[in-house]
Every structure is written in C-alpha cells, then in structure tokens.
Amino acid sequence: MLRFTLNGCLKITSFFLYRFAYMIVQLILMLMLGWGVTTSDLPVSVYEVKLPDGSIEIRSQNKEFRPYTLEINWSVRNVATPQAKFFVVPALAKDYALTVIKPTAKAYSYSYHFTCIPGDIVGTKHNDSYTYAIPFKPGFKSKVSQGYNGSYSHNGIKAIDFVAPQGTPVCAAREGIVVEVVQHNKSGCASSKCMRLANFVKILHDDGSEALYSHLQYRGSLVSPGEKVTRGQVIAKSGNTGWTTNPHLHFEVLIPDYKGGKSIPTKFQMGNQLLALQKGDEID
C-alpha cells in the first residue's frame, strides 16, 4: 500500500530568502526520503502557480489510473487557507487545480505538508446492492478455505480464500479498470514475513472500491494497468505466492482509508442464489 508524507516549500516575500529556504527544504527531503528519491518518483506531485491577483493556486498531477486523496496541513502567517482538509486528485490528472490560498498582508509566509492516500476517501461509498461473480470460469469447482476474520491470516479482514490449483484462470468478479499489477514474485511461505511476496491484481470499480486478487502465479497477470475489464473476463492465473500454505486465490474488496484500504463484506451470485460465502462452502 502507498502512503507518502512530503513537506511543501516555504514561501516568503524575499526572493533570496525564498531560494535559501527552498534549498534547505530540498536537502531535508533528500535526507528523509533517500538521495535517490525525488518527488517525481511519487504517483502524485504538488506545485504552485502565482495568480495575477497575488493569490497562489495549489495544483497537482497524478501518474496513476486511480485517484489519490491529499490531506494537506498548513503552517501560515498572514495567509488565508481553505477550510477543506482533504483534496482528491483524479486519475491521470494533469495540471489539476486543488485549491487557492490568499495572502492577507504584504509580509506573509506559509508552508505545508501533505499525506498522499490511494483512492478517494472523501467520495467513495460502496454499492452494497452489487452482487459479485464467482472469480472463476463457470463450472469450476472449489471450496472456501478461509472466510471473513479467519484465524489464520484474515484477522479483522473480510476476505475470501478459494482453493485453486496453480494456473487456474482467475476472472474479474466485477467490471472496472486495472490500477495495479504485481507479478514478479516467485515464492511464498506459511509465515507473515512472506506477505509482501504475493503477486496480485487490483481493479478499481465505478463506486471507488477496489477488488484485490492475490497469491497469483509468477508472471500470471493477463492484464495491465489502465486496461478496462468486464465482469467474467480472465485476468490472471492463480498461484501460491506470498503468505500461503497451499495454492489458492485471495479475493477482497476494499474502500480507501488511511491504512491503504478497509475490507468490506460482499455478496456473490452462484446460479440463482445470492450468497455471503463462509469457510467450507462449496463452489460449483
């Protein structure tokens, strides 16, 4: 999950003091983030444009196919700042106007820092009436090996683990846009230390939620970020990467929050039935 905190540049009326402050802040940023990392490496960048009336417009760019929420905190002197705390940057936004701040005196200064959170934490509201498809081809037989709040690895998580041999075609349970793909990992183990070794695909839905399809095969993704997928489309091959004891597919729907995503309950359609799947349920 991505979450960044960056400091904005101090602005003061003197040009020379401004340049000095800018250099100091840049040095601090390099020390905080590492000499090889710059703001250009991040999915969202923030910059400023001075307007003819003397106010300053805060603008942003977003490199990714998902929106990001910026939580901006200010430290100001003689500057009027917006009451809003959260600002949403749309997917692939270029030169996007976030807000405007206005000096209230000739001598003024301001600084800010922002936290970058994946997704729209302001406007996302899951469509609870949506019924998800079983994430496999019709006729595939499986079993739920772990359900919501499972004692093994689902503590506090509303996710479903489907037993599936490696290489089983995985299908999109809901239409959307692919926003993230990881498929370079080759291994897994029965310990939480292997959690970050899972290959996965994330798909953004039209209500702002995202579906996570995890433990996929090495190079097992059949889709790429930015690709639109339809319900039932084959998107990947199941595997056994990450924190796992046996080949299976981990399926989870998340809404964005400070921790990278909060899992929510989902209903599935199997034949003419609408089901809230539990451990031990047979899939056919």
Quick synopsis:
The chain is mostly beta strands and 284 residues long.
Task: Give a verbal description of the structure.
By secondary structure, the chain is mainly β. The protein folds into two domains: 4-118, Immunoglobulin-like; 131-283, Distorted Sandwich (Glucose Permease (Domain IIA)), CATH 2.70.70.10. The protein is built from one helix and 25 strands. It has one helix at 15-33, and strands spanning 4-7, 11-12, 44-50, 56-62, 68-77, 79-80, 86-89, 96-103, 109-118, 131-133, 142-146, 159-163, 169-171, 176-182, 188-189, 199-204, 210-221, 228-229, 234-238, 242-243, 248-255, 262-263, 267-270, 273-275, 282-283. Strands 11, 12, 13, 14, 16, 17, 18, 19, 21, 22 and 25 form an eleven-stranded antiparallel beta sheet that branches. β21 and β22 form a beta hairpin. The chain is elongated, with a radius of gyration of 22 Å. The relative contact order is 0.16.
How big a fraction of the residues is strand? 35-45%
Instruction: Quickly count the domains.
Output: 2
**Helix and strand pattern:** EEHEEEEEEEEEEEEEEEEEEEEEEE
User: CATH homologous superfamily of the largest domain?
Assistant: Glucose Permease (Domain IIA)
Which class of secondary structure composition applies to the elements? mainly beta
Q: Quick check: average pLDDT?
A: 86
Which CATH architecture of the largest domain would you pick? Distorted Sandwich
Quaternary organisation of the protein chains: single chain
Share of residues in helices: under 10%
Distance between the termini: 33 Å
- State the low-pLDDT regions, or none: 1-38
Radius of gyration: 22 Å
CATH topology of the largest domain: Glucose Permease (Domain IIA)
Task: Name the overall outline.
Answer: elongated
In DSSP terms, counting alpha (H) and pi (I) runs of 4 or more, how many helices? 1
